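Re: that chain you flagged

S.,

Sorry for the slow reply, it's been a week of failed gels. I finally had a moment to sit down with the sequence you sent. For the record, here it is as I used it:
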Amino acid sequence: MGCLLKANGLYSRTTVGAVLLAAGAGSRLGGRPKALLELGGVPLVMRQLVALSGAGVDEVVLVLGHHADSIEAAVSHFPISIVRNPKPDDGQASSVRIGLQALSPRLDAVMVTLADQPLIDAQDIVALIDEANAADSAQGNVASTKGTSAQVKDFGKQMMRDHHTLRKAGQDMAKKENITPAPPANDSMPAGAQKMHDSLNAMAKGAAWDKAYIDNEVAVHQMVLALLQTAQGAAQDTALKALIITATPNIQAHLAKAQDIQGKLAAAPAAAGADAGKKKKAP
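Prediction finished late last night. Pasting the structure tokens below so you have them in one place:
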């Protein structure tokens, strides 16, 4: 993959990677792999790979799960990396995490796209953004009471507040512009969000709960940021495009804060262990 002009050194630009998600079971299609459905005689996954190549994307990681063997066979001639999600039913966020981990660290920017979503319109965009805001607000509500770390509890309260505000702004815009939200038929976001919500409710409070919540927040905000970047390019309605442009810095700030908390939570056990070691050595 990649841009030939850049490869030949004729000009320099941002190095971009892409995570292409194709791990779904295709349950709404009776178990058929959606990525292999054809549009104009070309499988959807191939159309997306060609589009990414034409856009000059330098590195692509294709994340597979259900139907991995058949999809991998169909794209074996593309110069891409392929990874498999061992638990694809855990939702898109789990596939996003695996895909991002497989990308090289040299990239300047990353986008996440779906293999089975070659066309997207305003109704799709508004519905997907609304779902994302609703899910994160609900999970923030859980974190505000179940989190152990003060940072996690405060972050949960902020997510509950900010995503409620973002959701209302989107709903007001849709009403004003006469856009009726209608999620795409292959939308798995609500199911994935509900599964994570149920998992958080079932887990006991403590450090493990805090880590599970923040790890998911990092992955979800990476996915939502990628959705906004894709939607901004696809949106034709000026009010919708303005809403996306306004929301993007908020999501970027949420992601940065979640990553900061994630790093501090990871460092806490090591710091505690070091302190314990010092106490043992003390006379």
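What I noticed first: The first helix runs from residue 4 to 7.

Talk soon,
D.
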